[in-house]
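Re: [help] complex structure
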Amino acid sequence: MNNRQLLISLWTMVVKEVRRFVRIWPQTLVPPSITMTMYFIIFGNLIGSRVGEMHGISYMSYIVPGLIMMSVITNSYSNVASSFFSNKFQRSVEEMMVSPMPNWVILGGFVIGGAARGLGVGLIVTMVSLFFTHLDLQHPLLTLGVVIMTALLFSIGGFINALLAKKFDDISIIPIFVLTPLTYLGGVFYSIDLLPDFWQNVTMINPILYMVNAFRFGILGISDIPVTGALVAIATFIVIFWCLALWMLNRGKGIRS
Amino acid sequence: MAEPALSIRGLTKVYGNGFEALKGIDLDVQQGDFFALLGPNGAGKSTTLGIVCSLVQKTAGQVKIFGTDIDQDFAKAKYNLGVVPQEFNFSQFEKVEDIVLTQAGYYGMPMKEARPRCDQLLKDLGLWDKRSGPARMLSGGMKRRLMIARALIHRPRLLILDEPTAGVDIELRRSMWEYMRRINEEEGTSIILTTHYLEEAESLCRNIAIINRGEIVKNTSIRELLTELDTETFLLDLAEPLETTPVLEGFELERVDAGQLALSVRKGTNLNDAFDQLTRQGARVVSMRNRANRLEELFVSMTSQPDVEQSIDGGNTTQGKETAS
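Output below.
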């Protein structure tokens, strides 16, 4: 395929993925917005008013970046996991496999589509948060970079999950038993300064802590960890996960007999 | 001589469980041919076609599509290939025209080229009125036609039809035959057809290969194959039931039941002799018919050994509501 054809096929993949989550918007876009609104009302407004300030910032403002990031992570991951597994289940993945599209285009299409949903939901949650607090963006480019990289990383993660999945249950195990605990314990609702030394050290091996804090630094200018290290870590994980997913796809793992 | 549309050499497939689905088969399908690949369930048809269109990984052997080795440049080989699989393999929730246009996009076709081609195919295949509805609302026959439209969107030179008329009513089947004949004769598209309707193969195809237990047991033209059939079996309905089976000199006669006999006749035999002898023995024949389609008889004789059902295709029906998490 020449470059123009590659671009057309990648664009087709992305449009198909975006069309899918927009078509079923009551399942993909509305629920996270409602859930996050509940978080803002209960944790931010009702409980947050009694918590006081965190690093000199109101609790409501403090949790906003974490909640946005939580939406981006879960939606990017779930979108690709669900969409690619549905393609496997309905065998429509064969449409892509019989075509001359290279595997990196197939992977790229799903990943960009997943990131689009993650970022779309992130934008909706950000707009909802503006009803509750005022956000004064400190580092716009950094904020954008971190959120895009995180969305891409978890989209690739969702793709690997879907490649390995044999039944629908298999694509909900990682979000429920891994992503949700890591996100809740990744400094979304609290600063790790509040934890005893031992648990602070344990928390440092949680990769989501770095993403949440880098994003919080971009919006609020405060972070529990060095931001440069976080950026390098996210970029490294993207490269490793991308190579792993592509290798699996080239080997036909989970899709070819 | 032009490169064959499909050339297979020493193709072998051993599945993870040790089952040898293909035992080093060789096969050529010439350009412009309408070729039938027949065989009982589990014989290796779907595995062969799966390897050709990259859905199954081969264990050994070489596959060339219009001279392009799939191991050297699979993308180039795939440009020439259109596939209509046995099972529905499109998203049931997508709009009909989106399914076809998306496939065009996968081949890198610009929209201004894909849109008119898609419209024409949907019109030709009787799907124009359904183009804006979701694919799950189509009938079984329409879904099969949708897969044909999708397979043809990029103008492939080789079309693989894996049981395209399975479960399709007779009228629709005939119209699909007409369409397939048209694209073969007028557009020069080479076609490989697998089917369980042997009448379909006899009616449409010029050449045939019969595969059984992972081996090609016959590869010739339909015409030659049919000349090999030197015995035909007729079922004779009797006016009155018979207690014993008549014995006919020079004929093989079998009693199906009290009111019916099966008469096997070698090519060139005078049938009148059989009826004379039957009359003398008090058997009055009121009607007769061929026991089976001619090709079917050959097929059964070539693949008559007890077969092991080896299903490699899982079901894929998906009904109801689209879900996402």
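Chain B has two domains: 6-226, 230-302.
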